[in-house]
Amino acid sequence: MIGKLTGRVDHRAGDHVLLDVNGVGYTVHCSERTLAALPPAGQMAVLYTELLVREDLLQLFGFLTLYEREWHRLLISVQGIGAKASMAILGTLGAEGIARAIAIGDWAAVKAAPGVGPKIAQRVVNELKDKAPAVMALGGTVHQALGDAPVEVIDTTTPADAPRAPVHSTASAQAEALSALQNLGYAPSEAASAVATAAGDAGETDTPALIRAALRLLAPRE
């Protein structure tokens, strides 16, 4: 299994990138969002990968983070969602966007992805709503393991001592808030929906603010 590739970008096409890894060229299919985030030809990049194996086909799919790859794996577990549809959804919404859409039952957001009809979009939300909290919780574990460092793109033009922004800190904050709410006794699906709503509607991005906003949403209304 090829799980990760580090190499020089040789060529970028509409739906894939050719990555030179020690003289071996790998064609890696990526979403539009991932392709847009990759550096230009000649620079180094890192992609986490998933290998699709069929009788007459071998295809590599690339992701900027492990968190995104986990959402891809979950999406393709839904009947009617293949790798192409998954990449379209992730390209449209991103990993955090699809997490929020599923958590709050927003199938219309999933339907916005090219080639995804309303029935498939509803199926994605219905089948994954109970699994979403577990994958959302992975966000914190993954980014803690990576040290919140920008490991997916190696920028050879930026000085080594220059300050760098953390990668997908929102996913980590949501995972921590989700864990906190579950520790308070809220059901995983209930907590995930509240956290996703707080992150989207209120625009909260740090853990304490997310917890406070989610608790307000979960508070009994008179």
UniProtKB/TrEMBL annotation:
Q: Which residues form the Holliday junction DNA helicase RuvA C-terminal domain?
A: 173-219
Where does this protein chiefly localize?
Answer: cytoplasm
Q: Where is this region: Domain III?
A: 171-222
Where does the DNA helicase Holliday junction RuvA type domain start and stop, copy by copy?
A: 1-62
An MF annotation (GO) of this entry:
four-way junction DNA binding
What SUPFAM superfamilies does the record point to? DNA helicase RuvA subunit, C-terminal domain, Nucleic acid-binding proteins, RuvA domain 2-like
Q: Where is the protein found, in the record's own terms?
A: Cytoplasm
Superkingdom per UniProt: Bacteria
Stretches for region Domain I:
1-64
- Biological process GO terms, please? DNA recombination; DNA repair
Pfam families membership: HHH_5, RuvA_C, RuvA_N
Among Gene3D superfamilies, the record links this protein to:
5' to 3' exonuclease, C-terminal subdomain, DNA helicase RuvA subunit, C-terminal domain, Nucleic acid-binding proteins
- UniProt keyword annotations, A-Z: Cytoplasm, DNA damage, DNA recombination, DNA repair, DNA-binding
The cross-references to HAMAP family, in alphabetical order and at most eight, read:
DNA_HJ_migration_RuvA
Report the function annotation for this chain. Answer: The RuvA-RuvB-RuvC complex processes Holliday junction (HJ) DNA during genetic recombination and DNA repair, while the RuvA-RuvB complex plays an important role in the rescue of blocked DNA replication forks via replication fork reversal (RFR). RuvA specifically binds to HJ cruciform DNA, conferring on it an open structure. The RuvB hexamer acts as an ATP-dependent pump, pulling dsDNA into and through the RuvAB complex. HJ branch migration allows RuvC to scan DNA until it finds its consensus sequence, where it cleaves and resolves the cruciform DNA.
Q: Which family is it part of?
A: Belongs to the RuvA family.
Assembly information from the UniProt record:
Homotetramer. Forms an RuvA(8)-RuvB(12)-Holliday junction (HJ) complex. HJ DNA is sandwiched between 2 RuvA tetramers; dsDNA enters through RuvA and exits via RuvB. An RuvB hexamer assembles on each DNA strand where it exits the tetramer. Each RuvB hexamer is contacted by two RuvA subunits (via domain III) on 2 adjacent RuvB subunits; this complex drives branch migration. In the full resolvosome a probable DNA-RuvA(4)-RuvB(12)-RuvC(2) complex forms which resolves the HJ.
Q: What is this protein called?
A: Holliday junction branch migration complex subunit RuvA
